[in-house]
Amino acid sequence: MIASVRGTVTAITLDHVVVEVGGVGLAIRTTPSTLAGLRRGEEARLATTLVVREDSLTLFGFASDESKELFELVQSVSGVGPKIALALIAVLEPEELRRALASGDYNTLTRAPGIGRKGAERLVLELRDKVGVVSTATASGGPAAAVAWRPKLSEALVGLGFTVKQADDAIATLASDTEDAAVRDGDVGLLLRRALGLLGRHR
User: Fold this and answer.
1) What is each CA distance from 102 to 95, 98, 106, 197, in whole angstroms?
2) 89 vs 140, residue with greater confidence
3) What's the pTM value of the predicted model, to 2 decimals?
4) Is 4-62 a domain of CATH 2.40.50.140?
5) Which CATH class is domain 65-127?
6) Distance (Å, rounded) from C-alpha 63 to C-alpha 46?
């Protein structure tokens, strides 16, 4: 098991980073928000887990040990593989995911691509008692969150190699949909995924 990786970032793409360790470049699948915090030429440390399949070996990396633990935990549920597990980690912060599992918040869980109502119910049923103690604080949202997401999203996009103008154009497009719950609540993870989809069309 490769529990963690520390080395120089040599490449960043839309879904993985290459970290050079001892002269070997390791391709590590990760989330958009984790990629946004990395810089080419700088040292990075990622908590990792190796997923072994008959025809592949895939290394997944996370900015925190907690995210890695949740990634592994949700895969203990029947029908949940690494793709869906990574989507959950990408869309929901660790504390938000724990709270949704512990409280049976199906609406929050179904925000992740690949998770429907039945899948959310199965996750809650099997993991409700395994996620540990969660904070009773109210989840982020409201007017303050709606204002704060723009600079955070801009910084993330620029960190992934897009220009400030490209970032601003994508943000303007997303912000124009005032009925979008992600825009109202300031869901940076989900908005980042949508922005990457918009910008990917013009690359």
Assistant:
1) 10, 6, 11, 31
2) 89
3) 0.67
4) yes
5) mainly alpha
6) 5
